[in-house]
Design goal:
Length: about 375
């Protein structure tokens, strides 16, 4: 006899939740998954009404589910957010070009504006050309550093207040393990935070911090979302792959291992007498950095000077010597991007004031359908 849902006791159970071991029906699964993400958003006070929020969209399952859930929750709970899709094109033929086609379809399906920023356009180097120069050993170091900056640059181009990314509980637990294995205390502290200020201007957060990867896959499958599921061509050598395998083997024997690792990471605190790097601005591009020159500028200089290992290890980073290295592309300074963003905001506010509809004189608040400024307060 088919098993009944453990929650509604009515419909047939079709999902066994890895997180709680409950057997539940499709509708209850959608409800608990979305409600847990909503609870994470509310309890962490991630957004303010009116925030312009960019969804880091790669076309993969995590970011596609994130875009769908953010749009759903924004409408259901009236968060009052302006949502955007923000994608980074690393320039990986046969992988990112295909996944970006998925993002373009998501743009139509979810009716969200989309901005794509590319490594080629920002840095003058695609990942394919970087791999040709550096080989397949340290390619993910370049990709990770460049992506982080690319997202922050895209956020300023769109004048966003906030970027949400699809990092899930498995990703967070892997990162905690990797930082422990590497002894990277300062990153260990930061990686458990649900929200950080990336470049110092835009908040970054992970609404799926406590959502299991398996549940995200189930959600995407059961909702029949349009997503791309091929692995990056250059991923097999990524260090994260080993941490992932280790985590999966732990999860097999103890499914709560993922959340346990996250809670352990959250409970760890850096002793007061440990000296952590102090953050300043890169003297070349203005990005936030604990050194005079940020990692992206050092890596770029190494590429331009034909010594790609410059900046890959900490020792090599000290050998940076040419502050005016010829670049294929001049990185736009972050202060310039910031000024442009503020100007955009000023124009938007002016337009909003001139196009604001007159309040409806018959406004009853409890049954109001006008578009006046009080609409947010109407119940
Ligand atoms: Fe970039 Fe490495 Fe991820 Fe591929 S696996 S997208 S190269 S970080």
């Amino acid at each position: 006899m088919p098993r009944q849902c453990d929650i509604c006791h009515d419909a047939r159970a079709i999902v066994r939740r890895p997180k709680t071991a409950q057997s539940i029906c499709k509708e209850c699964f959608f409800h608990v998954f979305e409600t847990e993400v909503h609870n994470t958003i509310v309890s962490s006070r991630l957004f303010q009404r009116g925030d312009r929020v960019g969804i880091g969209a790669s076309g993969g399952k995590d970011s596609t589910v994130l875009a769908y859930v953010m749009k759903t929750l924004n409408e259901r709970y009236n968060y009052g957010l302006d949502l955007y899709l923000l994608s980074v094109d690393e320039g990986i033929a046969g992988y990112r070009d295909d996944s970006l086609e998925t993002v373009k379809r998501n743009k139509e399906q979810y009716e969200l504006p989309l901005l794509i920023v590319s490594y080629e356009q920002l840095y003058g180097w695609s990942m394919d050309s970087i791999v040709q120069a550096v080989g397949r050993k340290n390619n993910c170091t370049f990709c990770g550093v460049f992506r982080r900056q690319a997202l922050d640059r895209g956020a300023l181009m769109l004048d966003l207040d906030h970027i949400v990314t699809g990092h899930n509980a498995d990703d967070v637990a892997e990162t905690i393990l990797m930082n422990i294995f590497r002894g990277d205390i300062s990153r260990l502290g930061r990686c458990t935070e649900i929200a950080t200020t990336g470049d110092g201007y835009v908040v970054r957060s992970k609404p799926f911090k406590y959502a299991y990867e398996k549940e995200i896959v189930m959600y995407a499958y059961l909702r029949r979302l349009d997503y791309f599921s091929t692995e990056c061509t250059y991923s097999p050598n990524a260090y994260r792959g080993y941490a992932r395998e280790f985590l999966k083997s732990l999860e097999r024997v103890r499914p709560s291992a993922i959340l346990d690792i996250i809670h352990s990471g959250e409970a760890m605190h850096v002793a007061a007498d440990v000296q952590l790097p102090t953050l300043d601005r890169c003297e070349r591009c203005g990005y936030i950095s604990s050194n005079k020159v940020c990692k992206a500028c050092v890596l770029l200089e190494g590429l331009e000077r034909g010594i790609p290992k410059l900046g890959v290890s900490r020792t090599n980073a000290k050998h940076i010597e040419d502050p005016t290295a010829n670049r294929a592309v001049d990185l736009v300074h972050f202060e310039t991007l910031r000024r442009d963003a503020l100007e955009l905001r000023r124009i938007r506010m002016e337009n909003k004031q001139t196009t604001q509809p007159e309040p409806d004189a018959s406004c009853q608040r409890s049954a109001c359908s006008c578009a006046c400024d009080n609409a947010a307060d109407c119940s």
